[in-house]
Design brief:
The complex is a heterodimer of chains A (199) and B (399). Chain A is an alpha+beta fold. Chain A has helices spanning 4-28, 69-73, 160-198; strands at 57-59, 79-85, 92-100, 119-121, 136-138, 144-145. In chain A, strands 2, 3, 5 and 6 form a 4-stranded antiparallel sheet that branches. In chain A, strands 1-4 form a two-stranded antiparallel ribbon. Classes of the chains: A alpha+beta (199), B mainly alpha (399).
Chain lengths: 199, 399
């Protein structure tokens, strides 16, 4: 038993235990890597998300044209809009714009066809609540007239920043889809030409 | 404490009461104060501190929500355990099942009777102090065996039997490592052992001669093994045996075993301080009747609590040993080494009955060198971590 490995074992035990304890002690001197979300974080998580992050939907009613494109595009019918044309003033009045966030699957199909980018995704993701009914977001509090796109460009300073953000959102988010109809037209033209040549 | 009671009797209190009854009553009251005011709180605070220290060593935070810095976490855990259902398995031996935690707690609480908190603050300065301590902490084995058997559960049984084997085996290096100190002092009483040491490090018994230096490490290791602490915590290993011998226990009964383990840590620290590190000795700077005992108590508490922290630190560092490795370490390494220490100290005492001052200073320097080398390694690891961090791509925008 008293062979060379006996003393070497003892020496190695002592040295490795001491080194191990030095490592753990050095960790004691460092800041922990834990991120104590949600209250002790250096910067809001929402501010670190990319621009195209598909969070909870938001509607800017000031630039909503009432075209109902989003309601038609939604694959699970979670958007319910009531808009009717007022006979006297000849403009659309929005009475109801409900989005059921419990049903919404955050696919973004509603924000693509929006002409002004009124309906868009926000970086908000903290939407947990205690009741299912509170997840239906009612965006219209009182009937408002819809927006009419001005050909000469928007001048109202209250609406301009919203329109700018909306159009930027569409360009960044929906731009590839906007190019697709042109590509599809070219393809169908080619297809008919080929059929004509073949047939 | 006897002197304190004598003074009270001389001043006229307890008139008409037989002297022995006063002593016994005083002892009981003092023991209750120690247990309720000191032991329970220290054990509870140790659980909080262990979780925080352990977490920091693993790079995480530990409980920091319940109260400032999570300080009330142990109270919350205690209240939670009190409110749990008291479950006794149907096929379990219910009398033994109920008795086991109390025996374990009695075993560990009785050890506080001989812990010398300061020159006057000791419940009973038995003249067989240290042997009494070793004997009484063996009660815990009975409690653990009963818990393992009475639970009517394979894992508990294995856990209990393993624990009994472990504690009984490690009693031997523990006892043998105490013997060099007894050889140096010629007394078994705790206050006597402290009285023979001085306040300066070179006068502590750990630096007295190289054999007591080795005995110190052997004693600490075997005491950790006796307290079922990692790396020797196979009986209660969470990942090995569900929860070992406490699998079937819930609520207050579980709290008792918990308390016994964490309180035992403090006993280990206290005994190590008493035997090897000069106990409550302070430099002769003051003679005030209140200040001196207070400083002595603080010295003793800080020294023993430091070893509690070291035990937590070891728990965060080392992996668990297998049960056969556990036995091998005890019987093949610790026991022969402790015999060698005993013989070496005996020879030393014959050669230098008054101690060898040169060797004491040399051993103190050796201790200092080890501490310096340790911090050297810590700085090395911190530097290496900093270099790694600089080269690392930060994937997480929040950090």
């Amino acid at each position: 038993m008293m062979n060379s490995s006996y003393l070497r074992n003892i020496k190695e035990t002592c040295v490795t235990v001491l080194d191990g304890m030095a490592i753990t002690f050095s960790h004691l001197m460092r800041r922990p890597v834990t991120i104590q979300y949600p209250d002790r974080i250096p910067v809001r998580v929402q501010d670190t998300l990319p621009f195209r992050y598909r969070g909870i939907l938001e509607v800017d009613l000031e630039i909503c044209t009432g075209c109902l494109a989003c309601e038609r595009a939604c694959p699970i019918d979670c958007i319910v809009i009531e808009a009717e044309k007022d006979k006297q003033t000849r403009e659309m009045i929005l009475r109801r714009f409900d989005i059921d966030m419990a049903k919404c699957m955050y696919c973004g199909l509603c924000s693509e066809p929006c002409p002004t980018g009124a309906i868009h995704h926000t970086p908000e993701f903290e939407g947990a609540d205690f009741s299912l009914e509170s997840l239906v977001r009612h965006h219209v509090k009182a009937p408002v007239p819809a927006y009419k796109v001005k050909k000469a460009g928007e001048t109202d300073p209250a609406v301009l920043p919203l329109l700018d953000r909306g159009m930027r959102y569409i360009e960044e988010f929906a731009a590839p889809e906007a190019k697709a109809p042109a590509a599809k037209e070219g393809a169908t033209k080619e297809g008919t030409a080929k059929e004509g040549a073949a047939g | 404490m006897q002197a304190f009671l004598d003074r009270l009797i001389a001043q006229g209190y307890f008139a008409g009461v037989p002297r022995d009854l006063v002593y016994v009553g005083g002892m009981v009251v003092f023991a209750l104060i120690v247990v309720l005011g000191f032991v329970l709180n220290v054990a509870g605070i140790t659980t909080w501190l262990e979780r925080r220290v352990w977490a920091r060593m693993q790079g995480r935070c530990g409980p920091n929500r319940v109260g400032p810095q999570g300080f009330l976490q142990w109270l919350a855990d205690g209240v939670k355990l009190f409110m749990k259902e008291d479950l006794i398995p149907a096929q379990a031996d219910s009398r033994l099942f109920r008795l086991a935690p109390y025996i374990a707690v009695v075993g560990f609480l009785s050890a506080f009777v001989v812990i010398p908190f300061s020159s006057g603050l000791i419940v009973a300065d038995l003249n067989v102090g240290i042997v009494y301590l070793t004997a009484v902490t063996s009660f815990v084995v009975v409690g653990i065996l009963m818990a393992g058997w009475a639970s009517n559960n394979k894992w508990s049984l294995i856990g209990g039997v393993r624990s009994a084997a472990q504690i009984v085996s490690y009693e031997i290096p523990t006892g043998l490592s105490i013997m060099p100190i007894v050889l140096l002092t010629g007394t078994l009483s705790m206050q006597g052992i402290i009285g023979q040491q001085g306040w300066a490090p070179q006068n502590w018994f750990v630096f007295n001669n190289p054999f007591t230096f080795a005995a110190f490490f052997i004693f600490f290791t075997s005491a950790l093994a006796e307290g079922n602490r990692t790396p020797f915590d196979l009986p209660e290993a969470e990942s090995e045996l569900v929860a070992g011998f406490v699998t079937e226990y819930s609520g207050v009964r579980y709290l008792m075993f918990f308390l016994a383990e964490w309180g035992n840590l403090y006993i280990i620290g206290a005994v190590v301080t008493t035997l090897f590190l000069g106990g409550w000795q302070i430099p002769p700077i003051t003679d005030g009747p209140v200040l001196r005992p207070l400083l002595e108590f603080l010295t003793f508490f800080l020294k023993s609590y430091f070893w509690v922290l070291v035990a937590m630190w070891v728990r965060a560092t080392l992996p668990r040993v297998r049960v056969d490795q556990l036995m091998a370490v005890c019987w093949k390494y610790l026991v022969p080494l402790s015999f060698a220490n005993l013989l070496g100290t005996a020879v030393w005492v014959v050669l230098w009955p008054q101690g060898n001052v040169v060797v004491q200073y040399l051993m103190a320097l050796l201790g200092l060198a080890i501490v310096w080398y340790f911090f050297h390694r810590v700085a090395f690891h911190l530097r290496r971590a900093r270099v790694r961090e600089r080269g690392q791509f930060q994937l997480n925008p929040l950090s």
